[in-house]
Records
---
Amino acid sequence: MTAFPALLRQRLRRDGVQLLLWTLGTALLAYLTYVSVSQAYGTEQSRASILAVVMANPVILLFRGLPSGAGEGAFMLFLIFPFLALLAALMSSFLAVRHTRGDEEVGRAELVAATRAGRRAPLLATLTHGVLANVLLASLIVVALMATGLGAKGSVVSGLAAGAVGLTFLGVGLVSAQLMKTSSGANSLATWLLMLLFLTAGLGNALGTPSSDLQRIESSWLTWLSPFGWAEQTRPFAEDDMGPIVLCAALGLLLAGLAVALQSVRDLGGSFVPERHGRAEASALLSTPLGLVVRLARPSIIGWGVGGLITGILATTLASVIRDIGTDNPALDRIMQAMAGGTDMEQGTVVVFFTMLGILAACCAVQTVCRARQEETHGTAELTLSAPVDRVRWLASFALVAFVGVLVVIAAALAGAAAGLAARDGDWALLGDVAVTGAGQVAAASVFIVATALVFVVAPRATIPLGWALVLVSMVLGLFGPLFGFPDWAVRLSPMGVAPTVTSDGVDVKGLWWLIAAVAAGGALALGLMRDRDLAPKN
């Protein structure tokens, strides 16, 4: 165990920039949400009217928290807490996989195990590292909320609840890393579990029982199947119940103990879920670099496509609901005007949901291009390029498949939007607005393809952290920037903030030509520099 401090320092140093982005970004989101709520819903009456409409349209609760009253703090946490917990969960699961299964893949774990550190110390160092990261995230959320003037007790409960969800998914990530053969498989398993549990909590709230004054909901039993639901049961700034926090933390530690037990009975590099046996003869698809990339990226593209389908359904299904809410609540109308740029309520709903869709498409693009870096660190890129495969063509294959992934996500959303209109017998003219806005998000998401590819060529070790950081920053600027009152120049830094949209006067092309120029110039530069780039060493 004498190697434990050195291993912990190595993890803290290696993740320093990423942890600052995750934790500071999450705390900043909490602070800015309060600022927005205090401006848009300055009176208890306006907050109460929103909650009453939510009770009448429980589908809204699928992506919101648990209503616990019209108080300023409780209402703000109803709007934002699920996203704070989601960020903590993603940070923790990625951290766990990176320092366990990821290190095994690149051979680093084998070298460490050959020293006096042994096999258990790295896992314990990763566990400690994850706990410290969530303590930091929780502390920064507490500071951010108290800086707004909210009460100390509710702020502490909010921060601890988000951090406790992070601890739970730290355990999920550690167990996933023991079960799956690859880091991508472990990340996929953890992410799918995360999304399933996130939606389970939302569904449990949607099926709950409203109070007689329509200001709070008693969740259904489904909520208690999800750590997100447990954390929401703390009801910050209302009941401030610490019990569910203990439950989340206990589950995280239990899963961490299970990961330790699983590691002790498997070989280094082995897994409990075996890799699927390949065919005796490869298909024709694998005869080209492009076909290989398609095979690698296909499962993740399908997953992001499902997310696009759900987003499209919600965009048109909720459009009329939000229009009706805005008719009776000028505060919501002002928010939609700020976020969607002066459109009517239904068009504004489409714009906001399809801005979220652009973020999903950008995530699909970044994940696909980042596979080039994973292939490089795993040593499989060297085998591919040892054949008569030009390295420019190799990188172009990842970029092309990423673009196809963007199209799949947008197309799935368009299909979902059409299904939503058909289900509610809506105005089919809205489908034209959906198509225009979706096409604009294709251009916006494509910027992330070339940006990630350029980082991969110039600074390969920063490919994965910087690629995802660009998406996170763009989300804050493009989706929340108008709501938080950011200056126009800051919002325009996000490709989503300058993507073409529909307005009451027609189509606003905004920065379409700049987006196209950026994609063309960035793509040409990345491919040109790749021609003379050597394979980078493992990180």
---
Amino acid sequence: MCFLLYLYIRPGLTVHTALRYVFIAHVKVDSSIVNCPQKMACYFNLISLVMLLCSILPRFSTDEASHINSRSVRELLISSYQDAASLHTRKRQRSPSSSTHVFTFLRQPDPETLEISRAAEVFQTTLQVLKNSVRQRYKRDVTATELLSWEDVELIAELSQCPPPTHPAICLQSHLNKYRSISGICNNRQNPLWGAANTPLVRWLPAEYEDGEREPKGWNRGRLHNGFQLPSPWEVSKKILRSSVKRPDDVYSHMLVDWGQYIDHDITFTLQSKGSAEVDCFNTCQNVHPCFPIETGDAITGAQGCMPFHRSRPACIVNFGSSIRQALQLQQINAITSFIDASLVYGNTPRRAGFLRDLSGLNGKLAVNDQFRDPKGRPYLPFVASLPSACNQNPHGERVDCFNAGDTRCNEDLPLIVLHTVWLREHNRIAEALKRINGHWNSETIYQETRKIIGALHQIITMRDYVPKIIGQEAFEHYIGPYGGYDPTTDPSAANVFATAAFRFGHATISPILSRLNESFQKHEHFPHLRLDDTFFSPWRIVKQGGIEPTLRGSIGTAASAVSANMLMTEELTERLLLLNVSQHMDLASLNLQRGRDHALPGYNDWRSFCGLKRIKTLDGFKEVVRDNRVAEKIAQLYKHLDNIDVWLGGLVENMLPGSRTGPLFACLIGKQMKALRDGDRFWWEAEGIFSQQQKAELIKGSLSRIICDNSDIREVPPDSFRFGNYPYDYISCDQMPSIHLEAWREEKSQDLEQCGTPRKIKNGDFILSSAYGKLVALYSCYHGFKLKGAAAIVCEGCRWSDPPPQCKGNHH
């Protein structure tokens, strides 16, 4: 073995390649590795063996003690990886602490996401171990960029089990042309990972880590920024953001707030790291990765403390064509597709999509709850697979577990549960209608066509009815403008600043009280209003307290909370925010500020420059932008330098643009993101070839109010569910709301299909019909957990199908 490595490491041959050769040579003579169920563990053991044997070899460099050469770095690289992998193995074996287990479970991402983020953590830990080893050996600090070549970076990525680069050739599969993939991959054929799940949030401006690589702003206590220390997020929250009162907004309903949270869950999902084997983030006030606690203090006693904070999970490198410095910087993962594609209804992985479907019904529908229905027999979301679940329970009633949906956050509050339920019902309503209209459609076609319609409705409601109200019509026309067709040069991936700052503007619009209204849109006599913290993770309140209607009426029949610079965040969020099984009250404002620093977002002024807005250089200039002199003075006093202001805070206190709910900075950042999501989406509802002109004319009739009419017991609605109106004067009957006529989706059997007949159904899989080079093609695929054996595509030729249908083999888990 050692001889092999000695033989292979020679001029012109990299360690990366040498290790491959040694691995291959060893595998040929050791069948135990060939048959090993965990190939990576065997690879790891092999590398350990190689390094042990080779430790007795003569040094390759005589002056290694004084110079860092490539061979010694690679030796350290391998051993650093071993240490990192060992550390993360111990971390995985450690059972989660009781304080974190419940909340983590309720935001648990899919297994595919966990594997990729774990690989990225091993990658990052390897870099840190390597730098520490070099520091110890050579008595000086170096950056990873100075040490490593691209080949070294690729080796670490491969050892860490980060997914290999995705080649555009995989996008040539024809079934990816008719419907969007569940993971978002291959939406852009030349850049398959743009907008896909489990890829990094993109950077519109470079990250500003204190060490240039991964240490967040505020990590090194005492570090000066523009000559001053950054204020504690807790101090900023206490002195600037907390408010005991919220005024009502007489223009918009609370549905504007609820939809903002809902559609955010269709675009971004940033995961939090767990504590490690060595440190529990709930029991430390030290900055030790992955813990970045928020310093707090008691104004009366002067006692110092901290609020727990877990750093965001990293992402694997996806672009090996960028600079090494950029590739080695810590980037945060977006666990879901960036596209507005209703992924929170359908999921982001084949595994979750399969769990959510009613595959036994052969009807293209989604699975529903088999235990509970509402008083009119309408379905609820199905329960999660692992029971009993961690959701809160009625202490005096029948158990109601957590609901399951395309996004694991669906149980976070009652309005989210309600909107998820409405869209589940809408999918099944449309699927049933399409089955009646097109009796020859199989279940896969019904499911995909319905999913396509639901995705289009999410896009229409968001872009036509929601975004202009948020950023104002003028900013909408400036930053987004009319649709000009799909642009394959536009990257639709969610930006870090959008996910971490700009789209969190909505936290300042949350009301401390959740209203529940009766049929006359008055306070419900049986189900009173609830404090915000009584609505978290409580699906039992939907099932046992009147269904979705009381909460839904509260969303459309209650005015949203107004936002002003001196009344930003309700105390329910800054002083009484509770996470399940976390004994300490949390502060959402502090968490948002710390998250921005965790992600190393540049400051408020840098983002103003990015948007072409004037940098704020003086207190008077800041007062002009904020329009509240007292708030501007307090912020300037706390931060001491205007360039240090956190972007989330700066954007939040800006005076709102006319007809909007954001200031100029957030209007710009949200507008740019929405334009990218629209123009960079090959399957956008208005894009050429996605829907027929007749279908588009029907889709534009769709509205949230109509969907509420079709899927609840509510019979009177405002024409626009986002606008607040007085009942009954500003409401209309559901009979007056325009409907989508699904006849536009009627499809006659083609002559080819008549001649060749319907392709045969297969067990554990299905097909969709498409056309290629003027011929009818049946494209088969297997359900999650099964593999296709045989021809994936069969062609209708000469009145018969070219091949027998394939089979789906394997064990379904």
---
Amino acid sequence: MSALWGFVLNLTVSDGQSLLRGDTLYRTIGVTSTDLGIQLQAERERSVVAVTTRQLTEDLGEQRARTDKAVTAFQQAAVEADDSISDDMRTPLATLRAELGRLGSIRSGIDDGFSSRLTGLIEYNRVLDAMFRFYDHLTPVPDLSVYQQASSLQTMGNAREFIAREHALIRAALIDKRLTEPEASAFTEYVSSREFLHARGQAGLDVQLRQPYQQLFQSEPFLGFATMEARIIRTGAPPPDAQAWNTAVDQLTTRLDKLGAESAATLAERAASGANAIKVEIAVAGGVGLVAVLASIVISVRFGRRLAAELAGLRAAAVELSEQRLPALVDRLSNGEEVNVGKEAKPIKVSGSAEITDVAKAFGSVQRTAVHAAVGQAALRRGVGQVFLNLARRKQGLLHRQLSLLDAMQRRTHDPDQLEELFRLDHLTTRMRRHAESLIILSGAAPGRAWRKPVPVVDIVRAAVAEVEDYTRVTVAGMPGSAIDGGAAADLTHLIAELVENATIYSPPNSNVEVRGDRVSNGYTIEVEDRGLGLPAGEYAAYNALLVNPPEFDLADSDRLGLFVVAKLAERHGIKVLLRRSPFGGTTAIVLVPAALVTDQAELTAGGDDTAALPSRTRKKALAVVSSGTHAGLPRRVRQANLSSRLKDGPPPEPEPERTNERSPDEVRDMFSAFQRGTQRAREEANEEGEA
């Protein structure tokens, strides 16, 4: 309504402004230009006579003074009406001003005798032609019919100008009783232009305005004037009776001027009537339109308030659904709770228009769909987790059976080469068991391995390294004597094994991975450092965020399965894991075990006694980590590598003579037989501890 009101008001106000502009132009430029045209016509007639008689009369000087006064008034009026002058009027106005500026040179040519009678006449005609072209743009009337009639009356006035040109030329020719050939041609041209303009003007006038002109053109003054025009054209000489010519011209121009004034008055009445109609339109468009706009504003405000209240209720219900109910429902489903879909997907209750209730129903439908989808996803995740758990348990059982078979085969085998292959197969089986435990952890269950007594940290680290394929590249530094609670030892071993394996995979094959640990004020810290290429800072931040707050495992994100396992194990026991760039260019993984899980020990025994808390198989792998070399692929113990610090304080043992020759096959067979008997005895001890 506001736009429509503004559009209509703009149209009507534009018409009103056009009327005001037209009135301003008429009172300023219109009045002064009319007087200027009359003065120029009079000066032109007297100047042509002066050229013919070669006498500059006092009457000519007075006329020039009146013309100059009219020019000054016109220039002032043009400045006053500058704001009302349209763009299409400025060009003809500038042309007229330029022609008026030539009056001085025109007068000088006449006064000095350089201009002929026809030349002077033509120069004044140019000035008047510029004025009539300006008149054509001086009728800014919004009413089209009034504009057309005004243009036709302007054409009739232009025809009146050609009668004045004929009179000026013939009056001068009557003095010397002759017309030159160019003058006769010019007279013929004036007559033709006058006839054309009269015919054109009459064709555009309506019946009321055209009838007076038709009567004039059929009257005696005009017919006599036309007869004399025809005779002058035929003979090429001025009329013999000067008095008759002057009388006919005076009578004709007087009646034309009177008729033009009467027609202009009639047209002015029509324009006034149109102006009144425009004023009424402005009043209606402004007043009634304003009332309609105000009424629409009041209605819109009331409707908008009601709609805003309804939308606020709908928004509150939607916000509660999206920010409270659905997130709480998802959390309950993630925690494994059973959810009643009919109870949780309650409809959204809002009141208001039909559109608002329809939107509320649509939100309710979306809510039910979302709840069904969330319940279905939760059931799917539980099913997938159960599948993981079942498969992992079955795989774990098969691996335990496989390990038992390997133990039996090792006890029955005395061939060194076969023992080496069995040892490698045993190592692969241990790694497979860790992967099976990873599936159990991702499914949300516990692997099941635990010990009653605290386990030394160094044994946990060695056992973790022993479960890595490329364990020979791992260097375990000396660690302070501390132990970890037996309930968390297996999970910590698994966690460190994942970090160590990740370090060996993403570092050059010829580089070492260092594992070191130390007791700190708030627990025990273990660092795993590799010499790889490292990661961008953004990836470190993303991985650390995952380790601090592990999300629900995404089946599509299997590339980071090891990190998910580490995060779940760390979350279970309150262990903090942090990844950062190593000073050597690789990555350092820092594991901070909380103080609640750490137990101080005054001294850890050396040799096999420090691994007594571990089962036989884990103990065997842990012993392999401290080897510094191999014989036929088997571990070789370093003498006194794990000797107690108090024993080391005694006299240094005598150096063992270096063996220059390899062991004989019999010696190797005896060594592996002893190794087999030792592992069997350790396994039996571990089984007794588990049963206890």
---
Amino acid sequence: MKRKAEKQQPAAPISAIAARRAQQQQQQQQKIQVTVPISPTPDAESDGEPPSKKARPSPAEDRKRSNGRQGTAQKKSAVARIREKKSEKQPAKQIKSKPEVSEPPSGLDSAEEASSDEESEEYTGIASDEEEEDAALDGAGDDSYESASNLPEEVENFALSKTRLNKKNVVYGNESTLCVRIKEKMNLALVGQYDIWVKRGVVSLMGAKLHPSPNVYRVYAPATHSLPVIKCVSGINGYAEVELTSCHNGIYRLKDLSPLYQRVWNSKTETAADKVTLKGSSRRTFSVLYTSSDDPLKRHLRPLHLDKKWSATIKVLSQRGGGLRVFTCGPKASGKSTFNRYLLNHLLSPAPQTESGYINTDGVAFLDLDPGQPEFSPAGEIYLAHLRSPFFGPPFSHPTLEGSQNGTIVRSHHIGATSPKEDPDHYVLAAMDLMSHYHRLLATYPQCPLIINYPGWIFGLGLEVATWLIKSLGISDVVYMSERGPAEVVEPLGQAAREVMVPLTTLPSQPTDYVTRSSAQLRSMQMQSYFHLSQPDGLSNPIWSETPLIRNKSIFVNYAGPQQGILGVMVMGSLHNPDLLRDLLDGAVVAVVAVENPSAIASQPDNAETAGNLPAGVDNAEDETMFDERDEPNADPDSSVDDAASMTEPGPTPQLPSLESSIIRTAREDLPYLFVGAGCCTPLDPKASHSLGLAIVRAIHVSARKLELVTPIPTSKIRESLERGHGIILVRGQLDNPNWAISEEYYAARAAERRHHKLVAKVKKSKASGAAGPEAEYDLEKLSEVSETLRERVRRAGNVPWMTVVEDSGRKQGGTAHREKTMWKLRKKAYPGGDSETDW
């Protein structure tokens, strides 16, 4: 009887703090792993392949029981057993976690399409929620395009908000706006994107304390990261009042271009809070969630809570004011980026001067030395940023500060890889150059504190680099993000800190419980966001375009002849045969680097430095060689090369004398291969060069001697660099191939086809019922012709180089044939002649 009563009681939501404590006590417990049978496909991996990052076990040990149906010793909560009992007649739903992904189902029933709204639904109504999870989670092997979420079988019911909305605390609300009162010590968690305006009281959000002011802040709260929590710190009569407004900036439309952006934002389906504050269907771009079970898409959502030791350390560091120079390091996935984001927002909080006696008017400098997971730039770059306002969102919501009113990139260097271990010497030189520019920034902003973000490269040579930077950068504090050591790392860091007489603070790591995107997938999302983002004049926030890059206008640049626009092409890493340069460039991501001085070329003597010595200053040669502007205007991608050549401005571009001996022209294409060094291309000296941004080489027109580039770099920035006499060099590093760009047109075609199917379903339903409306005026014959056109577009979009579309129609679900699915298999090798066909 007791056991039966236990089954009848639903499990209460668990707080994130309680769950974390329970997880620490269950470190040795067996991880839960489940698999699903799928139909055989080419290059498919075995069912026993582990996920990209293992999910942690459920924290409530007393609510777990043996799973007899699975025949294993795995544990289940009481809620899971109740659900299982209710669905005994249904086939058990099993999920196979894979490191890379397949695309959602392509087949779409018209009746199902008509039941969803493409404009406001986060995931485009392809099927039911359970079918969407199956489609997103089906593995496609290591060489597939990209993978979606790695989700366990059961979703833990986590408490997200401490406030429930009712008529008393809802001031007003409509289809786009919600104004609520939050009691002191209470909080709200939201998923989606919104603008927040604090009207009364003081609230905290991701480390920032927001006071009543006219300022409106943009918040991005995707399901890929822990959800930010709005907490009332103090208020009038015990309440704070905030207004939340929907924002339409186009980033949610990126789901039509990549499956990685699907199931990221809030769903169309109303939550419990929406039913209280809305009448009719929801149109907001955000949703208030009380617990994780309120999520209609049943994702693993967690609140973003701060550890008490983190809060105490942030408070101590912020009291240093303008003298703060903090160096944050630690193992991978230990929470370094989250800690730095909290500290950054806390320092940038627009608090009244009477609160602490100190007000930040000079902003905060952010020295990001992590090329793998940068905060304000795409992968492969390290940079120095000057920030003036808090940022609320993951890195892919602000992949660049170009044109932003909240901050600027002071200087950036292209590392050419996601890890500094590829070239530690160049990495240290670049870091020292960025630090020298921070000291120049202090001349204008003397009270500007500095946050240094070091990557998870903390063992071996990475530890030597970290200790050397601690001794050389003139920092005030060292923060290490792990209380578990290891001792062979903490002791050298402590010794280096003692030598320069600065404190070393050790904080507990705060990793994410469930990882829905791997590091490679997050880089792809950030890179795709970077190339689709723009900052129009007059707008305070950026917007994203859902147009595939293949349909964007390109920039045509001469690489040979009297009107040459680039000085050369450099390939970082090992030595490559010049005959392979075209294969290395075609379809690759390259950095657009400005050469400020001829001394940037490593062939100059005494220019090479090592990580063990301070970088010697590069002589500022008086060579004022000027380069004529070679900024090509945007051209129609369908225009001929001859038409593009006619837009080239007259005037030759002289080459640097020091480059002539280092350039090798390829025999067939006449490409300028800039080769310097012995056995490999030595990077440019950071003292005399800097990165302007990234570009994708869309095509190489050999007959016209032109490169066709797609880049979000403003033409004004390139023009300004040329007016200063800088030369432009393209640098091909070892970054991931832009697989997402290759498949964008296909996904866009499929999305257009789905929208058309939904329209056809509405028209058929309207004509069958005889109801009057706009759908009844459509001609079904013309709609059928459009369907054929869209089907042909999908076929042509799938027939592109380096990509193979594999149809999987043999999967069974519940005794019936599953809809036809599409999986991406990319065949382009990362480097010609390499053994691997993947770039992960």
